[in-house]
Amino acid sequence: MDFYNDYELYIFDLDGTLYEDTSHFDYYGKLLKEQLPIEMQEHFTKEYEQMKEGNHAVAIGKAYDVERDSVLTLDPLTLKVVEVTDWNGTKWEQNKVANTYAGKLTFDFEKMIAIGDGWWLPFVCAKHFGVEDTYNSYLQTKEYMVTDQFQLTKTPGLKQGLEKLKEKKQIVLMTNSDAEDVGRLLKELDLDGIFDDVITSAMKPTKTTTFLNELLSKYKVTPEQAVSIGDNFINEIAPALELGMNALLIQAADVDVTHERLQTVKTLADAL
């Protein structure tokens, strides 16, 4: 893969892509935990730590059904359910899986959750324990991320690499974060004003395909000439591949999925 020459349109995610810090996920989890009764907080911490260690049914790349308290394993490309367990990891019978989850899943951020990155582990844990208001904790975490207490780690060569791309290519930022958060984070990363387009509150994965099609049309490129770059397979990678685009997945852990139009790197710095 020749990162600087193979494509005409580059569509970047923000969280976990342009910066890769993870301590804010724990901060978010702490705020959510504090909403629980004292006697439940230790249970929350235990479950959340097991998730981060990979010793829990809930894991990045899966989905969570809030109403049924069930954990869904998906085919990453089709997003169809292939296996279901309860919270404790007990598998459902396949006929029950087929009858309950027929066809492609639709994610709504409330009842059906795509666990695409580290933000969703504390969220799912909180929902399991009955926390209703997660959004205010999310907003407080975003505010914390632009204080002196939190220091974003800048990806080596990121600004120079994006400036080099921008000389001949179109570069776009598409993120689920809202406009105010994005503005603050881009200034913190010294990337303010560098993108040709910035799409905020994108509601990925629900609206990913819609926005990708709009960008292909706007910049008059074919899917083969575009690449989607992100750390969340469900949000940024699967929809792009389905449209015939290319994709670059940023994932520190080993990835089992292979596809002729998919490249995987440990960090964006590896591509740059």
Automatic annotation (TrEMBL):
Keywords: Hydrolase, Magnesium. GO terms for biological process: DNA repair. It comes from the Bacteria. SUPFAM superfamilies: HAD-like (SSF56784). Gene3D superfamilies: HAD superfamily/HAD-like. The keyword Ligase does not apply. It comes from Lottiidibacillus patelloidae. One of its GO terms (molecular function) is phosphoglycolate phosphatase activity. This is Hydrolase. The keyword ATP-binding does not apply.
